[in-house]
From TrEMBL:
Compartment(s) of residence: Cytoplasm
Enzyme type, top EC level: transferase
Annotated Low complexity bias: 242-253
Region annotation (Disordered) ranges: 238-263
Gene3D superfamilies named in the record: P-loop containing nucleotide triphosphate hydrolases
Biological process (GO), any one: pyrimidine nucleotide metabolic process
GO molecular function, one term: dCMP kinase activity
Basic and acidic residues bias locations: 254-263
The protein, known as: Cytidylate kinase
Keywords assigned by UniProt, alphabetized: ATP-binding, Cytoplasm, Kinase, Nucleotide-binding, Transferase
Family that this chain belongs to: Belongs to the cytidylate kinase family. Type 1 subfamily.
Main localization, broad class: cytoplasm
Amino acid sequence: MTDTTQIGRDALAAGTPIVVAVDGPAGSGKSSVCRESARRLGFGYLDTGAAYRALTWFAIDSGCDLDDGDAVATLLPSFVDRYRISQSPDERWVRVGEVDVSEFIRDTAISGEVWRVSRVPAAREALTALFRNTMASTTSPGIIAEGRDITTVVAADAPARILMTADEAVRIARRAGEKVGETVAAVAESVSARDARDAKVTNFTDAADGVTVLDTTRLDFEQSVEAFLRIVASATSGPHQTTAPSLAAAPSAVRHDNTKESR
């Protein structure tokens, strides 16, 4: 297995937190793999998508017209001042002021409206600054930040940048397994609609130069985590030996872009 202890020691020796930036579409395994990897590394974990969801909740709760960019922008100082999220991979709470919105922001009604907020330039600018401040001030030896535009905008200079992806059919199947009570057809429509909406705001399917692609289509969870940790080890402290079979079992799972392959 990848020597996660060595990565942690290297991070502490560096004196500043190591940032691992991760992008990818829904169902690629991004959140679960990042959370488990952070746990093993002793790193913090930052779900940037939660901030956009929480801002959407806050705007709706405040009676804001989500199609009015200026109105959304007016709410930003108050939201940023009140927003809090756990950086522990073992905790999942999100708060806006005194309100725990952890469950509210996962509601379908919120999920379907997030794109309206994320398309507001002022919102993206304010939240990008919030994310950067959070990463810089973490008390952990490193932090894994995942979402959209993390590898290209939020943390474009991170030593480890990863684009996680998977074939659409696999992503839909994974999401369907999480959505109890929803048909596969409904989940498929939801995933496709979300991809289409998000694509209007950001490119989350093509890796920028220097970003490593991790395709989890043929990897199970443990293989995905091990492949992820190998990328981090290689990017932050040179090659490390591992006994994991993941790359041997799926040699094309990890790709360092400059090579793009059609999907």
